[in-house]
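Review form for a predicted model. The reviewer records the input and the model, then writes brief findings.
Reviewer: anonymous (R2)
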Amino acid sequence: MNKPCIMVVDDEKIVGDMAKFHLEAAGYDVETFVNPVLALERAKTKRFDVVVTDLKMKGVDGMEVLRTIKAISPSTQVIMITAFAHLSTTVEAFRDQVFEFFPKPIKIKDFVAAVKRALEAKGAESDGA
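Model under review:
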């Protein structure tokens, strides 16, 4: 079975780098983007099992990433990370089929576990991960 493919979109490069390091160590293929527009362009040419996106970014926000990813690939699970979760945003995100909200600062063990849950929900978890 192929390794699950994960996309991480966060305008803070350090968040993407940290996520990539730990998710690759857990056995996943990972692509990171600081520019959400480029991430969405990539999603048109490659299917990802899980997309992790920050909520607050310049230009394109996490809600737009969520909606666009779900339009391109409805089976892709989306995890939103944010330090700014408000009830109205949370309700809207779940209505638009976000898999899980994840708070910043990120606790790595919990973050990797959330990605694994998303893969299990999708049915894309590989035996080696």
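Findings: The domain at 5-128 is CATH 3.40.50.2300 (Rossmann fold).
Further findings: The first strand starts at residue 5 and ends at 9.
Recommendation: see findings above.
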